[in-house]
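To: structure desk
From: M.T.
Subject: fold request, one chain
Message: Could you run this one when you get a chance? Sequence is below, nothing fancy, just the single chain.
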Amino acid sequence: MKTTPALAATLMLSTALGAMPALAETTPEAVAAHYADIALAKYQDSLETAQALDAAIDALIAEPSAEALQAAKDAWLASRVPYQQTEVYRFGNAIVDDWEGRVNAWPLDEGLIDYVDASYGTENDENALYTANVIANASVTVNGEAVDASAITPDLISSTLHEAGEVEANVASGYHAIEFLLWGQDLNGTDAGAGERPWTDYATGDDCTNGNCDRRGEYLAAASDLLIADLEEMVANWETDGEARGELLADPQNALSIILTGMGSLSYGELAGERMKLGLLLHDPEEEHDCFADNTHNSHRYNAVGINNVYNGVYTRLDGTELSGPAISELVAAADAGVDEELKAKLMTTIEKMDAMAARAETVEAYDQMIGEGNDEGNAVVQAAIDGLIDQTRSIERAVAALDLGSLEFEGSDSLDNPNAVFQ
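Reply: Done. Structure tokens follow.
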């Protein structure tokens, strides 16, 4: 099996999945501070890989070639490894949740950005910008007003295009906009294959395919610059004097609720529900997270790794440095050792099920094929991972009770709580 940058990072990080030995006299203050330290490290690693992606994108635009496009794709895949581990910081931390849509929103109506296949259609009752194709048009109409798009800049993307018309599907920035610009649409449905954008979409002169190659490069460069700026902002939020760290440490006892809310909400409503069960119920390849690159198995796996990181207070950085320290696991163990052991075991079981799903994706079939209708074996592999996430959520709820944190509200999902609503 080929060792891609993402796979190499997988192997490196796998050593950090287990729990660290309990530390004496662990306090909520110490747990909250270490939780913040891991957040900072993860966002710093996300920024570092985004900067490497930006360099690869610059090289692609400067000298387009099949090799340069593949290098940019590899850099994008590597960038997903640390970032997906940060998503456990959502839901409980309002600063992260308010910001996240700028960098990881999905799914997107890609016709806003660039050319699409005829099968995509030309109109959408809920989105007037469904096929606006900013790359092909120097002027677009947003909310009835003409917008000058002659220069594609980070400001145009963030201030005007992203969620234009208050339509969430108008995702103009972040990882998935860049993913689309590197891979193009995945038109294979539940058959084998990812997006197949040709490198000549960035070529100059007569070698340019599908038109507007210069503007396509402008958009890709601007989106990459914007991703770096957004990640720099989040790194600053977790620095010693950062706003997110300050809010967390101001009330260490509430920080425990924040930690477990992030774990429970990502486990249940977001990952098990919206990202996995919904697509499985509909057997819809459009309901996969990294849909253009066929990287969804890795995105889901690293979400699960991130949950484990937070509970056990461990993280292995890109440079191999292992962080470990006071963890909420130790507080739960002091209150109810049985609950702690149960939750640690279930977190590892989920990761094992995610590993099995990822191994299948690397050797048998992609995630979008696994969720296809009639694929009983592939469906079962995905369902097993979903079951693991649901099961660990029950134990997260028990941890909340053990720490006497009251009633915490985790994100829900119709696909889990009211499946019939999905088909209405």
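Reply (cont.): Confidence is low (pLDDT under 50) at residues 1-24. Let me know if you need anything else for the meeting.
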